Amino acid sequence: MGARVVVLDYGFGNVRSAVRSLERVGADVTLTADRAAAQEADGLVVPGVGAFAACMAGLKVVRGHEVVGRRLAGNRPVLGICVGMQVMFDAGVEHGERAEGMGEWPGVVERLGAPVVPHMGWSPVEVPAGSTLFEGIADERFYFVHSYAAQTFAKGHDENAVGVFSPPKVTWADHGGRFVAAVEDGPLAATQFHPEKSGDAGARLLENWVRSLA
Amino acid sequence: MSVAIRVIPCLDVDAGRVVKGVNFADLRDAGDPVELAGRYDAEGADELTFLDVSASSGDRETMVDVVRRTAEQVFVPLTVGGGVRSTDDVDRLLRAGADKVGVNTAAIARPELIAEIAERFGSQVLTLSVDARRVTGDVTTPSGYEVTTHGGRRGTGIDAVEWAEKAAVLGAGEILLNSMDADGTTAGFDLEMLRAVRERVHVPLVASGGAGTPQHFVEAAQAGADAVLAASVFHFGVLTVGQVKDAMRAAGLVVR
Q1: Where do the H-state alpha helices sit in B56-135?
Q2: Which of A145, A174, A199 sits opposite B75 (nearest CB)?
Q3: pLDDT above 90: percentage of residues in chain B
Q4: Which residues in chain B are closer than 8 Å to A125, comparing Cβ atoms?
Q5: What residues does A108 pair with on adjacent strands?
């Protein structure tokens, strides 16, 4: 049996594609909002599309934010996708309204500054050395569809830091300016793009993540 | 900007079967939208569009099933349009696995629908489809283009450029601009109309109608289209997605 993965079903996200693409790379996938199952799985996927505030509110209804917090405290892997990544930051600002996120990472998710928004389509990414998620696919394009993104990443920028914790590995993309395309931060990983919609490259990324769940 | 120009094959689906299906040698069933979608995916399509041309509501249920089966096998974005009239219709298609939903006539009758969909699901799920043509006879609009319904047979007198602009403000995440004059001619996209809409609209713009050669796709992208859509040239095996991308690459455009 493959790694047990729960895709958190809280009403936001194209969960069918996420489930199928994880199954395709060998995971044993359950789609549920059940907290015990989400807590115990080898890996938890937090999908999300639409508005930041609505996703965050939806997560709270199923107490998904608590599950994520507990899993990370116990070093148990979580993968956020699209708005499921954005809610890991301190806050999001859409239409001038600020909504609080889970605050796992510092920073605010804000509107992209490009002439054409949403950013919709396949873009390349700039992957840091030592990435596990992007192993073998650093030169591929991935499918993005979003109007907002974290455009800075403050945590772990002190390159001279020493200690047991390695700094987060941040992958960047560009659409009218640089934004955070993916983060690998210990047990917490996330992508702004949709790996489940990114063809073979996306499948490889999910496979890399599922493999890391051992 | 580094995002690639998207090449999007479109399949017309009636009661769960592809209309004008062609016998590609390696397909078991050329009329099966799921199998054809898989083929386009393998050819390098950046996205797929299903246009439901079914007349009855029962056939619409069949479409939901087609979407479900496609989403389970094809891992590139899928847009589904045709007969979408309400947020509940959108919800049903998204739940079945569509990534985006195309809205056309219903939004002309009731523009608030655009805002309702955007508010409930986000702008990114909503592609507003505009069937437009040059005005003729005594009809005039500021841009010289008007919105049509009923497959281009009926004019509305609504200015096509203003409508696209208004839809984007209301919350459409993308505009699919289909030239009813060019549609079916294989003489190329309506580049003037594309430029006119591009100038005023700041959401992604998809060019549709008139593609016949790889160069036509290049011209549409150069006129400002973020994506290019075609049905029959891919369908009838006249062109492959790969040929279109090769031409675009040779012209210095960014493709996947």
Answers
A1: 57-71, 87-96, 105-109, 112-121
A2: A199
A3: 81
A4: none
A5: A91
